[in-house]
Amino acid sequence: MSRDYPLGTIRTEQVWKRFRADQQRMLLRDRVDQMARRLRGDRGEDWRWALRDINLHIEPGESVGLIGSNGSGKSTLLKMLTRVMYPYAGVIDVRGRIGALIEIRAGIHPDLTGRENIYLFGALLGLKRREVAGRFDDIVEFARLGGAIDRQVKFYSSGMQMRLGFAVAAYLEPHVLLVDEVLAVGDAVFQQRCLDRMREVAEQGTTIVFVSHDLPAVQSICRRGVWLEQGTVRVDAGIKDALAGYRDSIEAQSEASARVGEPLQLLKYEVRGEDGDATTLHTDEPVTVELTLGGDYRGDATLHLGVSEGTSSPIFQISHEIRMTGGDHRVACVIPRLPLPRGRYTLWTGVYSIGRTDGGTLMSWHSAGQFDVFGPMLDTPPRAVVMAAPVFVPHQWED
Amino acid sequence: MGGQRAQVIDEQQDRAAPPGAPVPAGPPPELVFKRRLRPLQVAHELWAARELVRALAERDLRARYKQAVLGFAWAVLTPLALCAIFTLVFHRAVKIETGAAPYTLFAYVGLIVWQFFSNTMNQGALSLANNLSLLNKVYCPREVFPLATMLVATVDMVIGIGVLGLMFLVFWTAPAATFLWALPLLAIQFAFTYGIALILSVAVVYLRDVRHLLPIITQMGVFATPVAYPLAKIPQRLQEIYVGINPLGAVIEGYRKALLYGDAPDARMTLIAAASSLVFLVGGYLVFKKLETGIADVA
Ligand SMILES: Nc1ncnc2c1ncn2[C@@H]1O[C@H](COP(=O)(O)OP(=O)(O)O)[C@@H](O)[C@H]1O
Ligand SMILES: [Mg+2]
């Protein structure tokens, strides 16, 4: 059962976790009520599973991206890996020192100074004072705290707390580094430095579990992806496959949310390539998008068209004024050279009336459907370098 | 590297249900998590967390002694004031008989013990509840929080003992040569106090309104414990049961005998108190460790 796994191993075997679903106040008098009800045979307890049957085997040095929508159980899983929380059932085995950044509020104690927190955290990780002292300057330098290091942590801004928390977790040489979706609090420069640091520690052999809604960032750090959905592992695969599956599901969900009762509807859309064949779109070749709108709105309006990959932020967006006459209206847009590399994309549209500052919505911005593009893959960026969005740039190298 | 990962995933898919297969409705009952306590591991963890205990205690003390005068007064004035009142009420009015020892010394010895107990109980009971956000962040053995409050109370007690030394000068008597008996009594006092603090601290997390009971317990306790009067005031045949429930009775009585009267503490009473405090300590610890697993869920 308890084989000796090397430091940095993470193993969960059939892990289950549940929480109370009913509102329970932590009061003695409520408990007395509850006891009385139980005597009458009414158990009155309502539990909800937060995690079900989680089996993960992570080897030392692996970098795993943990993705999933809000409430899918990512933070709960991380908390159980740090042993702050206990499973309802199953076995969790994490070998070695754990550095974790799960909540924004950094360090250990808000009443202690940043310096004291660093030493305390090191002590809890089992490091000697001397060992912490050796890394102290790195931590302060990385977190850019300067003189604030001798101020109480409770007076730090949330960005400073996060920086301290990350620096402490990432510089005290943990065997396992767990990072929840808190990096978003930092500014863009700091986020990039965090990603760089994570890449560094990953190369030194630290096991990483990284939770983020910034999917390109996850992709830039992690080689393996675990997609949690409603407390179960939906996909555990290479990061690209996991992200692709997750993106598809996000899009399917946003399509499903119906827009009934709006003045205009998208009746039909078509994305087709040069030879009129809708199934073959090619990078850097002409593409035509044809939309048919219907509804009883009459007058001028602005039609917006966008393309996204996975998230709801579009890669590009173009718009055009149209005049609706109460009947169906067909509009086509020709893009002479499609700037998208190989992949699956989502088409978004929306129509808004003109000249109204509140942007009177005729058809709200929504995803119409997906299309595939064939062509070259994008070149792989260096690790920890996050691509904002995939764009194909025609180019030639000379040397 | 890549090959290694691929192999892991394959292994995973071999043993776990295939993707999309329905997840069972609940875990197999034999897998339900049970807390297992290995004494060696527990001791090791506690030792590893000594820095945290020190830092937590230091934070409390520093906050208190930032204004040195007020901080000192906190440790000294409360027991002294109570001592003065007890001297007036119990010595002058009720005429408690204390033999060769001055009543003020007699009462002050009891008050030092009581003050230590009530400080640890009141602060210790809230030690988890006041640090809930922290408990969600870092793993450490949770018993360090009540332990740190006991450490703070110990510092206050040391100051109180210093004042006791001054009192011996004032009353022109010397502590009896039997004072070394105080050491085993101290162990009983610590064990009992920590056991109570452990139980209360975890109780307050789950039952937040228990904290409103603390002042009542404190106020009744000071009279229910032989602080102002000797243990002999409790009927002879009830004394053993009483000491079994409240070992502090035997502890205070023992200190008085050892320090003021030059006697050895009553062996029978001391043994009962020792056994009882051990039960409180071990029982409290087990309850604490059992309930500890759910703290982060309700935090
Ligand atoms: N302490 C708690 N008490 C009750 N429910 C909780 C608690 N913590 C998390 N949950 C519930 O468990 C589920 C998973 O939460 P969480 O792990 O925070 O999700 P994520 O981090 O993926 O957004 C959610 O439905 C959340 O409401
Ligand atoms: Mg979360």
TrEMBL record, chain A:
<dbReference type="GO" id="GO:0140359">
    <property type="term" value="F:ABC-type transporter activity"/>
</dbReference>
<feature type="domain" description="ABC transporter">
    <location>
        <begin position="10"/>
        <end position="255"/>
    </location>
</feature>
<dbReference type="Pfam" id="PF00005">
    <property type="entry name" value="ABC_tran"/>
</dbReference>
<dbReference type="InterPro" id="IPR027417">
    <property type="entry name" value="P-loop_NTPase"/>
</dbReference>
<dbReference type="InterPro" id="IPR050683">
    <property type="entry name" value="Bact_Polysacc_Export_ATP-bd"/>
</dbReference>
<dbReference type="InterPro" id="IPR017871">
    <property type="entry name" value="ABC_transporter-like_CS"/>
</dbReference>
<keyword id="KW-0547">Nucleotide-binding</keyword>
<dbReference type="GO" id="GO:0016887">
    <property type="term" value="F:ATP hydrolysis activity"/>
</dbReference>
<dbReference type="InterPro" id="IPR003439">
    <property type="entry name" value="ABC_transporter-like_ATP-bd"/>
</dbReference>
<dbReference type="GO" id="GO:0005524">
    <property type="term" value="F:ATP binding"/>
</dbReference>
<dbReference type="InterPro" id="IPR003593">
    <property type="entry name" value="AAA+_ATPase"/>
</dbReference>
<comment type="similarity">
    <text>Belongs to the ABC transporter superfamily.</text>
</comment>
<dbReference type="InterPro" id="IPR015860">
    <property type="entry name" value="ABC_transpr_TagH-like"/>
</dbReference>
<protein>
    <recommendedName>
        <fullName>ABC transporter domain-containing protein</fullName>
    </recommendedName>
</protein>
<keyword id="KW-0067">ATP-binding</keyword>
<dbReference type="GO" id="GO:0016020">
    <property type="term" value="C:membrane"/>
</dbReference>
<keyword id="KW-0813">Transport</keyword>
From TrEMBL, chain B:
<keyword id="KW-0997">Cell inner membrane</keyword>
<keyword id="KW-1133">Transmembrane helix</keyword>
<dbReference type="GO" id="GO:0005886">
    <property type="term" value="C:plasma membrane"/>
</dbReference>
<feature type="transmembrane region" description="Helical">
    <location>
        <begin position="213"/>
        <end position="232"/>
    </location>
</feature>
<protein>
    <recommendedName>
        <fullName>Transport permease protein</fullName>
    </recommendedName>
</protein>
<dbReference type="Pfam" id="PF01061">
    <property type="entry name" value="ABC2_membrane"/>
</dbReference>
<keyword id="KW-0812">Transmembrane</keyword>
<feature type="transmembrane region" description="Helical">
    <location>
        <begin position="144"/>
        <end position="172"/>
    </location>
</feature>
<feature type="transmembrane region" description="Helical">
    <location>
        <begin position="269"/>
        <end position="288"/>
    </location>
</feature>
<feature type="region of interest" description="Disordered">
    <location>
        <begin position="1"/>
        <end position="26"/>
    </location>
</feature>
<keyword id="KW-1003">Cell membrane</keyword>
<keyword id="KW-0813">Transport</keyword>
<comment type="similarity">
    <text>Belongs to the ABC-2 integral membrane protein family.</text>
</comment>
<dbReference type="GO" id="GO:0015920">
    <property type="term" value="P:lipopolysaccharide transport"/>
</dbReference>
<feature type="transmembrane region" description="Helical">
    <location>
        <begin position="178"/>
        <end position="206"/>
    </location>
</feature>
<dbReference type="InterPro" id="IPR013525">
    <property type="entry name" value="ABC2_TM"/>
</dbReference>
<feature type="transmembrane region" description="Helical">
    <location>
        <begin position="100"/>
        <end position="117"/>
    </location>
</feature>
<dbReference type="InterPro" id="IPR047817">
    <property type="entry name" value="ABC2_TM_bact-type"/>
</dbReference>
<keyword id="KW-0472">Membrane</keyword>
<feature type="domain" description="ABC transmembrane type-2">
    <location>
        <begin position="70"/>
        <end position="291"/>
    </location>
</feature>
<feature type="transmembrane region" description="Helical">
    <location>
        <begin position="69"/>
        <end position="94"/>
    </location>
</feature>
<dbReference type="GO" id="GO:0140359">
    <property type="term" value="F:ABC-type transporter activity"/>
</dbReference>
